């Protein structure tokens, strides 16, 4: 049997590069000619432009989104002897970062409609922490797929408990909640700039942002050996620098992000229409939240069949994520869970399916997906 030809890839970072090739090639040539490749003027300019775009005073570039979370935790002084609360329905990076900082993860369940942290369960664990864990010092809400967590009750519960909030914005560049940019709601925000994210480098990159200048100074020192002055470590640091080539590419792309997110939203609207009346429900939008569709996720008890039927029409899909973090071999049996025991997380991991939604999809590719969705519904 012939394998179907994929005409609509689930992600396509090369298409984004080709669409912007002259500007990106010029930016790269500029860096190559400059002779300065790490933490120079491009990185400093990108940090300033990113902070301005977000509406915060400071941003600190780093090597990737995992390190961005680690810098946020370590900058806040959170490590051994602290528990950090997040969800199991996330990129494993969120949980890995907590352990890299030396802290203990506690994983909560999600709201099954939006796939984001269950705020009621958070309130419950802050009021009545599970026994045997170090004190809870921070919460990492993950704005998964490009949509905000239920931030009002979450922030209220964290403030009442005196617990820091680190927003994981790796999938939510440019998303808003009640008109406010995600990443400006907590104490500090971590962004991945991995090649398939809404704002993407051509390699690994990340950035942390905050309105707290002292925290920004600490994170900037930690990312380079704990230096405030060259060769003098005031604190224990790491090496997690942003290189100039990536910063220059990101400076080309930041001004294009709003249009790219609008394109994702237009594709999402086309999928909504194609799904109307069928068995697959479009993603639930949280009232007041502007969703930037890092992923367009539907769920089905017959996921394998749906994927196979889409594939037969040339449409590739992906699963984010096929296994909750707490069930993965590296974590199983040793990570604390909240009282809900991640039941909705486990159900979601069996049923979620991500359609192609990158902004470089052509109208013809979007129509191919819509036609395949209509067929799948029938
Ligand atoms: C991508 C991602 C990360 C990690 O980013 P890297 O750049 O791959 O280290 C963290 N959290 C979430 C939710 C992500 O999607």
UniProtKB/TrEMBL annotation:
<dbReference type="GO" id="GO:0030170">
    <property type="term" value="F:pyridoxal phosphate binding"/>
</dbReference>
<comment type="similarity">
    <text>Belongs to the DegT/DnrJ/EryC1 family.</text>
</comment>
<dbReference type="InterPro" id="IPR015424">
    <property type="entry name" value="PyrdxlP-dep_Trfase"/>
</dbReference>
<protein>
    <submittedName>
        <fullName>DegT/DnrJ/EryC1/StrS family aminotransferase</fullName>
    </submittedName>
</protein>
<dbReference type="GO" id="GO:0008483">
    <property type="term" value="F:transaminase activity"/>
</dbReference>
<keyword id="KW-0808">Transferase</keyword>
<dbReference type="InterPro" id="IPR015421">
    <property type="entry name" value="PyrdxlP-dep_Trfase_major"/>
</dbReference>
<keyword id="KW-0032">Aminotransferase</keyword>
<dbReference type="InterPro" id="IPR015422">
    <property type="entry name" value="PyrdxlP-dep_Trfase_small"/>
</dbReference>
<dbReference type="GO" id="GO:0000271">
    <property type="term" value="P:polysaccharide biosynthetic process"/>
</dbReference>
<dbReference type="InterPro" id="IPR000653">
    <property type="entry name" value="DegT/StrS_aminotransferase"/>
</dbReference>
<dbReference type="Pfam" id="PF01041">
    <property type="entry name" value="DegT_DnrJ_EryC1"/>
</dbReference>
<feature type="modified residue" description="N6-(pyridoxal phosphate)lysine">
    <location>
        <position position="197"/>
    </location>
</feature>
<feature type="active site" description="Proton acceptor">
    <location>
        <position position="197"/>
    </location>
</feature>
<keyword id="KW-0663">Pyridoxal phosphate</keyword>
């Amino acid at each position: 049997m012939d394998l179907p030809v994929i005409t609509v890839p689930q992600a396509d970072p090369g298409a984004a590069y080709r669409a912007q090739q002259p500007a990106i090639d010029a930016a790269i040539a500029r860096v190559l000619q400059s002779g300065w490749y790490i933490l120079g003027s491009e990185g400093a300019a990108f940090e300033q432009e990113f902070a301005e775009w977000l509406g915060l005073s400071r941003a600190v570039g780093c090597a990737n989104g995992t390190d961005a979370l680690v810098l946020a935790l370590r900058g806040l002084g959170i490590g051994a002897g602290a528990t950090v609360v997040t969800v199991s329905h996330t990129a494993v990076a969120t949980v890995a970062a907590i352990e890299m900082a030396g802290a203990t993860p506690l994983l909560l369940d999600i709201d099954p409609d939006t796939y984001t942290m269950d705020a009621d369960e958070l309130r419950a664990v802050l009021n009545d922490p599970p026994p045997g864990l170090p004190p809870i010092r921070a919460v990492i809400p993950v704005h998964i797929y490009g949509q905000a967590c239920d931030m009002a009750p979450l922030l209220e519960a964290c403030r009442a408990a005196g617990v820091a909030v680190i927003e994981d914005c790796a999938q939510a560049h440019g998303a808003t909640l009640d008109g406010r940019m995600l990443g400006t709601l907590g104490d500090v925000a971590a962004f991945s700039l991995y090649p398939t994210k809404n704002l993407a480098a051509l390699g690994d990159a990340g950035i942390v942002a905050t309105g707290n200048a002292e925290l920004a100074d600490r994170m900037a020192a930690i990312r380079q050996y704990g230096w405030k002055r060259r060769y003098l470590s005031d604190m224990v640091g790491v090496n997690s620098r942003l290189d100039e080539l990536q910063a220059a590419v990101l400076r080309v792309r930041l001004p294009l992000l709003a249009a790219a997110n609008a394109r994702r939203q237009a594709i999402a609207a086309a999928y909504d229409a194609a799904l109307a009346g069928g068995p697959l429900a479009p993603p639930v939008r949280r009232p007041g939240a502007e969703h930037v569709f890092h992923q367009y996720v539907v769920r089905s008890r017959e996921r394998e069949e749906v994927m196979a039927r889409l594939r037969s029409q040339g449409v590739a899909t992906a699963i984010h994520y096929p296994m909750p973090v707490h069930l993965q071999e590296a974590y199983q049996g040793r990570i604390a869970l909240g009282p809900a025991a991640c039941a909705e997380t486990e159900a979601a991991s069996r049923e979620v399916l991500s359609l192609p939604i990158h902004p470089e999809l052509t109208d013809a590719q979007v129509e191919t997906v819509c036609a395949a969705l209509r067929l799948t519904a029938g």
